[in-house]
Known about the structure:
Elements: H1 2-6, E1 10-12, H2 23-36, E2 40-45, H3 64-84, E3 88-91, H4 103-119, E4 122-125, H5 133-143, E5 146-147, H6 157-167, E6 174-177, H7 186-189, H8 191-195, E7 201-204, H9 214-221
Parallel strand pairs: 1-2, 2-3, 3-4, 4-5, 6-7
Helix pairs in contact: 3-4, 4-5
Amino acid sequence: MIADHFHIHNVEIQQMYVPADGLTAYLKDFRARLRKAKSRVTNMPLEFDDQGTPGIISICSPDPKIQQQTIEKTKQWIDHAAFLGSPSVMINQGSKLETGSLGPAIEGLKTVVAYGKSKGIAILVENRGQTKPEVLVDFIKAAGAYSNPDIGNFPDEETRERGLRLLYPPSHGNTHVKIMQERYDFAKVMEIPKEVGFKGYYSIEAGRNLAPDPFQSAQIIL
């Protein structure tokens, strides 16, 4: 549908929408359908929470048991990403990281970064929640991971412009783009990746704030 309707052959898929039952057969069928559509997976965000994306089930969890469980789940999905040919997966680090308490989170991220390297998969982290851009960049660099800039996930304009200029240089060729007309000037913001020389994929996030029809929402952003 994406290839035929939008003439787009690069797709980002979220693990949370992949059915757990019959997973192996599903992934084999999905890979075959990708090839038939002459398409490829460019990234796979991993969201392990029971509902939504709060990042409670995270490799950055302060609970060692939750952290270890998430590391094992992440490794499994790195394997699945490699099977599908995705160059990367994106973790959910939770809503807030703070300087001075990053040690366990960095070690958790280092573990999955090392496993990802063994499979040819990069580990991405996007800006989200209340984490300051400077703290997020330090966290990413300390673990040897990469950023996944999201133009919408900032509290205000000053933080957005500062944060994107910090996050594009350590990116791995994937950025999330959405239009939120009440919060920022889309055209102005989209000058920043061009200004800093970003050459990767612009992954469309199309919500119902633009139009009730998802086809229309995606087309507006495209």
